[in-house]
User: Which sequence fits this backbone?
């Protein structure tokens, strides 16, 4: 499911160097893209992709690192977005402050969810996150005085021009990407691998699995909350439908197609899944059918996703060239 | 150092442990022997928090262990191995050791990730300790190898290494020589002897009598959950009840 | 007075609905060993199959019910062989996310075939209102629900307790490895349980859905409610599922009458969350199906 390589000790291995190199190239290309790309529409699609990349990477912390299936990621995004929107309605604060408050709110909600959710097993975890997501949705839809209910909160200030919005989300994506990557290759990342592989042995080695799970879940929520605050100003409108648990399916497809627990595979998959869908298939139901099928096939046949395939290809090529040499 | 007082544990009416009582003093090598099913591993699980005894207390340097979580007990300074060799197959040999070491180095979580200078210092120290230990257990050439690719004997050594690298005050080994070839048994004996000379305290479950007799200061014998004998290896070896337990069955 | 009776009747209908569905979920969880996120969609599918036989083909009610159940069983067999079998005993995410993907697939295919608009599968029995003196009314379909559910549960009890297959299922639920070693064909038993569970879903649909409407997305709500019931009752316990169905069914019906309907759903989740906080194993928490036959 996950590869040793992406979750190793901080050693100067070739893979780490390759990864840093790739990162530099990708970020450089992404930074100068707006200069060459003309058209607000394309920039918009790219910005959407960046949002998805960030959300997927934050979700990866729960699904990939902890190894748990949560329905709540869209809810945390929504909590962040609504926090920012409601804050804007009452006080005038900078977006950074809004983001910080959003992180705090999302984290608190995550803590509340974590307590019953991690009680029994993966299944109850999924159900509790689903239950809370539905409760939050109900709350938001019905507390019309606070959230505008189904009529949404609108009129939020925009982040700026298309290019400016692109750069905001690029910076966020790079920061989040760097951070989650740093976690994976640190001792914390190692602990997650240990917990997933043999929790009893991990406990015997001194790992407090519960604390690691809680912190990963809360971290993932915090990132989504922060993203939500900026997302609110990107859309300038926040609606209850933005936190629909159905988005979980798309996130799962991105994670599993890309390779759960990995990194670049997920980034690539997130781009593919934002850029392609609308252009190819217009009927949202057919889109959903394709997602369902893709996810099912991934889970059954290709759990390591694209990243896993690439790695297997590389090691086959390497051993082939080695035997030839 | 370790006091086991009146520990009892039943599973669905079967008395796995019955009022077991003994202690281990600092620097001692105590072996726990007995026929299969006499409750040795159950006792280990009670000591290390994987099972809750129905009655009794386990005191480690005055501190009550019953009711504590396994990770906490590990952090108090007790390390153990498992009968079925458990390690993290996906991680490299080095990483397996680092997992144990680093959980015993206290640091703030965010600092861990952001790798502040203090944390990087700890990491270097951890790697150094791991690398020294790896050489000591004889797996020096396999640092980067994924643990699942090791042979059985190498995995046995690694699991002992993982327990050692955390520098525990008490080391619990569950059948360290089971299914191990004679050469490796010697390697393990020598390793344990070296550690004993440095004052390491051991509580070891074993079936290999030669191993037990040659290394132990004291031997405790369990049969059907009860302690039936305790004393020096020689006295236990000739104890009629012990002989009966093993032969009578 | 008549208000209370109608609440009670609604509550019993819900109880029956949840009981059949939840028992299926417990069977799948215990015997197949996976969590089935597509469970509610089995009900939805059963409903549409019933629709095809009853409304489109015009079969009489009982025939349509039986045919729908058989058709669903056949589809379940196919699903097991093609998909579910490969999700068992694998990494943690395989059954969870695999069945979720199956759920999405079933819903979108159903929507493609039958469109998203809710349909009615009402039978004449729904309109045969029976007066119960001054207490109120009940309709004939509701009677079918109660009788049908009672029959099903009794059959389930008998099968689990007395039949060879039932004993095999209970044995597998308790200890898979031991069963395999003792010559029980675990895969076949699991297949049987899966198909039986799907059949229960189809029955539930054919009995209860005439009182409601079917739509492709109706499955999600049922899945969630079924999980709430099973968590409340205890994951491996049939007895727990039945008792919990009663609790959840009654509470839902009563709260729907006295509270805004938006929050009644939240009630169920709240109960589930509280249960996990204070007694995670559920009311009859048991890792096997033993609990049922001890009734």
Assistant:
């Amino acid at each position: 499911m996950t590869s040793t390589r992406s979750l190793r000790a901080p050693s100067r291995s070739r893979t780490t160097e390759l990864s840093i190199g790739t990162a530099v190239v990708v970020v450089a290309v992404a930074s100068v893209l707006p200069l060459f790309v003309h058209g607000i529409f394309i920039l918009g699609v790219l910005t959407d992709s960046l949002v998805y990349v960030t959300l997927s990477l934050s979700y990866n912390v729960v699904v990939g690192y902890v190894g748990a299936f949560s329905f709540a990621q869209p809810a945390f995004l929504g909590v962040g977005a609504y926090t920012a929107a409601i804050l804007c309605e009452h006080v005038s604060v900078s977006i950074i402050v809004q983001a910080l408050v959003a992180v705090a709110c999302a984290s608190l909600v995550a803590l509340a969810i974590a307590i019953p959710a991690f009680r029994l097993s993966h299944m109850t975890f999924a159900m509790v996150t689903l239950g809370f997501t539905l409760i939050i949705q109900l709350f938001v839809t019905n507390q019309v005085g606070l959230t505008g209910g189904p009529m949404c909160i609108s009129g939020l200030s925009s982040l700026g021009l298309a290019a400016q919005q692109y750069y905001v989300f690029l910076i966020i994506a790079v920061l989040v990407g760097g951070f989650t990557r740093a976690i994976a290759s640190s001792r914390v990342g190692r602990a997650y691998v240990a917990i997933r592989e043999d929790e009893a042995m991990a406990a015997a080695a001194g790992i407090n699995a519960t604390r690691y799970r809680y912190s990963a879940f809360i971290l993932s929520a915090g990132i989504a909350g922060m993203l939500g605050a900026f997302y609110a100003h990107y859309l300038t409108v926040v609606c209850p439908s933005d936190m629909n648990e159905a988005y979980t399916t798309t996130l799962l497809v991105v994670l599993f197609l890309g390779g759960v627990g990995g990194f670049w595979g997920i980034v690539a998959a997130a781009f593919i899944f934002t850029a392609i869908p609308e252009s190819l298939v217009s009927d949202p139901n057919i889109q959903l059918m394709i997602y369902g099928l893709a996810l099912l096939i991934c889970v059954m046949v290709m759990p390591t996703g694209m990243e896993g395939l690439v790695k297997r290809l590389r090691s086959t090529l390497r051993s082939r060239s080695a035997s030839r040499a | 150092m370790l006091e086991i007082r009146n520990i009892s544990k039943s599973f669905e009416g079967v008395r796995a442990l019955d009022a077991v009582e003994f202690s281990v003093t600092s620097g001692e090598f105590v072996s726990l022997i007995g026929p299969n099913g006499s409750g040795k591993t159950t006792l280990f699980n009670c000591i290390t928090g994987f099972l809750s005894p129905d009655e009794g207390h386990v005191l480690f340097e005055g501190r009550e262990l019953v009711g504590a979580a396994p990770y906490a007990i590990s952090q108090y300074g007790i390390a153990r191995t498992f009968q079925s060799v458990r390690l993290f197959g996906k991680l490299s040999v080095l990483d397996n050791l680092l997992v144990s070491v680093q959980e015993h180095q206290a640091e703030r979580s965010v600092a861990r990730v952001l790798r502040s200078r203090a944390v990087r210092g700890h990491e270097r120290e951890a790697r150094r300790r791991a690398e020294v230990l790896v050489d000591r257990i004889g797996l020096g050439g396999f640092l980067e190898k994924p643990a699942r690719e090791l042979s059985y004997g190498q995995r046995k050594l690694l699991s002992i290494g993982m327990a050692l690298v955390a520098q525990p005050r008490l080391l619990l080994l569950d059948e360290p020589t089971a299914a191990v070839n004679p050469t490796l048994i010697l390697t393990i004996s020598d390793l344990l002897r070296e550690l004993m000379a440095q004052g390491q305290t051991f509580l070891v479950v074993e079936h290999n009598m030669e191993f037990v007799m040659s290394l132990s200061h004291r031997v405790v014998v369990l049969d059907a959950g009860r302690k039936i004998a305790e004393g020096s290896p020689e006295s236990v070896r000739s104890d009629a009840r012990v002989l009966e337990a093993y032969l009578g069955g | 007075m008549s208000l209370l009776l109608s609440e009670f009747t609604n509550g019993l209908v819900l109880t029956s609905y949840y009981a059949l569905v939840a028992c299926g979920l417990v069977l799948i969880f215990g015997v197949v060993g996976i969590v089935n996120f597509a469970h509610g969609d089995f009900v939805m599918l059963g409903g549409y199959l019933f629709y095809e036989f009853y409304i489109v083909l015009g079969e009489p009610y009982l025939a349509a019910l039986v045919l729908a159940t058989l058709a669903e069983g056949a589809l379940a067999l196919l699903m097991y062989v093609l998909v579910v079998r490969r999700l068992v005993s694998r990494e943690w995410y395989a059954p969870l996310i695999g069945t979720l993907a199956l759920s999405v697939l079933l819903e979108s295919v159903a929507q493609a075939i039958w469109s998203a608009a809710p349909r009615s599968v009402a039978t004449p029995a729904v309109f045969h209102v029976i007066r119960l003196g001054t207490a109120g009314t009940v309709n004939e379909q509701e009677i079918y629900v109660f009788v049908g559910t009672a029959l099903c549960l009794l059959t389930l009890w008998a099968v689990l307790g007395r039949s060879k297959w039932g004993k095999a299922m209970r044995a597998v639920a308790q200890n898979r490895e031991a069963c395999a070693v003792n010559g029980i064909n675990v895969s076949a038993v699991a297949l049987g349980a899966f198909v039986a569970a799907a059949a229960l879903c189809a029955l539930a649909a054919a009995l209860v859905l005439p009182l409601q409407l079917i739509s492709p997305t109706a499955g999600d709500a049922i899945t969630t409610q079924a999980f709430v019931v099973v968590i409340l009752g205890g994951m491996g316990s049939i007895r727990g599922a039945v008792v919990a169905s009663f609790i959840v069914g009654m509470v839902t019906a009563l709260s729907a009458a006295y509270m805004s309907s938006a929050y009644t759903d939240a009630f169920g989740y709240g109960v589930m969350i509280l249960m996990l906080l204070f007694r995670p194993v559920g009311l009859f928490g048991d890792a096997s199906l033993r609990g049922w036959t001890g009734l």
User: Anything to note?
Assistant: The longest strand of chain C covers residues 129-132.
